[in-house]
Amino acid sequence: MEVIRDPQQMQKRAMGWRRQGVVVGLVPTMGFLHDGHLSLVRIAKAKSDVVVLSLFVNPTQFGPNEDLDRYPSNIQRDLELCEQEGVSVVFMPDADAVYAADASVFVQEEQLSQGLCGLSRPIHFRGVLTVVAKLFNLVLPDLSVFGEKDAQQIRLIRRMVRDLNFPIKIISGPIVREADGVAMSSRNSNLDAASREQAVVLRKSLLDIQQAVSSGECSVAALRKRADGHLADTPLGALDYLEFVDNETLESVAEIGERAVLLAMAVQFPGARLIDNIVLERGAQAALQAK
Amino acid sequence: MEVIRDPQQMQKRAMGWRRQGVVVGLVPTMGFLHDGHLSLVRIAKAKSDVVVLSLFVNPTQFGPNEDLDRYPSNIQRDLELCEQEGVSVVFMPDADAVYAADASVFVQEEQLSQGLCGLSRPIHFRGVLTVVAKLFNLVLPDLSVFGEKDAQQIRLIRRMVRDLNFPIKIISGPIVREADGVAMSSRNSNLDAASREQAVVLRKSLLDIQQAVSSGECSVAALRKRADGHLADTPLGALDYLEFVDNETLESVAEIGERAVLLAMAVQFPGARLIDNIVLERGAQAALQAK
C-alpha cells in the first residue's frame, strides 16, 4: 500500500493507470474509518483493479460554527485498516495543497441541495461537490463508492456526474449500523455517553414511521407525529429536521404515494449532529403484504 | 472527418482514444468559423494526434436579452473548413442532449468573473465554465485551445482547470484581425455597414492608449481619456466598459506599474456587442525603448 500526499503525484499515478487500462475505484472519506467506510472499500474492490481511498477533512464543506476543528482523527489506525482491506493507495493531501489561497471556482447545485441538510448547512454541499470534482480529476476513477447514510450527498453527486458528464460510475453502499441500530459515523465518537445512548432516537423514529406506512398510513402529517414520543424521550437531541421528500427530486411530499419517498432526519446533540434515513416505498410494502 | 452529435458517443470515442494513448486537442467554438478559430485549430493540430472541434451555441451563457436567437450560423461552411484544416471530429450536439431539462449543477467562479464582461453579463461565465467543464469530460482532451480575444474567458478557464484540477493543458491563441484591425468575431456579421465601419473604435482606442504608455504615461485616469475622441467619432457604438486590470488577478489598477495590465474594452453596437483587449507591459516597453 502506498500513501500519496501530493495532488500532482496522485494525478500522475492516475494517468499512468489510465494508460495501462487499469480499472480504478475511488472511496472518498474524511478518515476516522469505521465499518461503514470499509464496506465501501469492499464494494470498490470487487469492481476495480486498484482502490484509492482518499482521506481528507475538507474545510470548504464545514460552516464557520461547525465541527471542523473537532472532527475525529486517527490516521495510524486508518492506514492499518486500509492495509488490511487491500487498499492500493491512500491519498492524503494537505488542505493547502488541495486549495490555492485564492481558490475561486466552485461546483454548485441549485435544486436538490436547497432542503434537508442544505437548510442548516448552506455552504456544505458546495464544498462537497467541489472537493469531489477535484478528487475525480486527481484520481480519474472509473467508479466511485459513497454511503447511503449521506442520502442527500449521494443524490447530489449523481446529479453532478450527470450534469457535468463525468465519465464515472457512482455506486452506493447501504448504511452500516451499530448493534443498537445507530448508523455508523465518525462523529459518533464525539458524543458523550448519555447522548450516545439517546442517539437511537433517529433509527427508532424512522422504523416506527416505516411500520406505520406498512400498516397503511399515508399521511405525512400523521406519520410525522410518530416521532414525537421518541424525541420526548431523548431530551439531549434537538430535532434539526424530519422530512419526507421524493426520493429522486427531493421535493417535499404530503403523502406516501406510488413514488419512493426518502424519509431523512437530522438531530443535533451537544457533541455532534447526526443524520439517518430510510426509503419508504408503499408499492413495495403493498406487494410484500399481498404475498 | 467524422461528425458526432450524441454526447455519449463522443465520450465513448474519447475513452477509446485514452486507452490507445492518443493525444487529443479540443477547440471549443460556437460555430460560424473564421480565421481566428482556424488559427486555434492549427495550434491544436501541431500538438495533438487528434483534433476535436466542438460546435455548440451554448444557451446557458446567454442572458435573457442577449443575442442567442441571432447568433450567426453556417454549419455547411463550418464543416468544409474543418475538413480542410484536418479536424478529426466535429462534435455538434443538440442543446437538449447537452442539458437535461432539470439540469441543476453549475461551475461558478467568484472573483475573476465579477468585473469586465461579468458586470453586464451576470450569468455568462457560469454558463461558459459549465459547458467547458462538460466538454472536457465528454472529449477528455489532453489540451484545449482558446483565443485571447476572450481575455477574461481564458483566464477564468485557466482558473477552473487549476481549482478543479482538470488534467488538461490550456493553450491560448493570439487575436486574429481583419485588414482594418477589427478583431475577428462571428458577431461582426451581425453589424450593419455603418456599425462595421465604426467597429474600428476598439482597436484604435487600445493602440492609442498603448502608444501613450510607451511614451511614459502611467496614469489610468489620463490614459482613459485617450479613448474619448475615438468614441466621439463613432456614435453608433455605446461604451460598455474600458478597464485597466491586473493581467492575473483582474483587479482594477490606478496606474501602469511593474505588473502587466490587461486593457479590455466592450462596445455595444446596434447589431452586436464587440470586445477587444491588449496587454500593457511597462517593463517590456521600457526594455524595448532602451534597446
Structural class of chain A: alpha/beta
Q: What count of domains describes the coordinates of chain A?
A: 2
Measured as a percent range, the helix fraction of chain A is: 25-40%
The succession of helices and strands of chain A, N to C, reads EHEHEHEHEHHEHEHHHHEEEH
Greatest contact between two chains: A-B, 36 and 36 residues
Q: List how many beta strands of chain A DSSP finds.
A: 10
Kindly provide the radius of gyration of chain A, computed on alpha-carbon positions and rounded to a whole number of angstroms: 20 Å
CATH topology of the largest domain in chain A: Rossmann fold
Specify the CATH class of the largest domain in chain A: Alpha Beta
Please give the order of strands in the largest beta sheet of chain A: 1-4-3-2-6-7
Strand content of chain A: 15-25%
Basic shape of chain A:
globular
Oligomer: homodimer
Mean pLDDT of chain A: 96
Label the CATH architecture of the largest domain in chain A. 3-Layer(aba) Sandwich
Low-confidence stretches of chain A: none
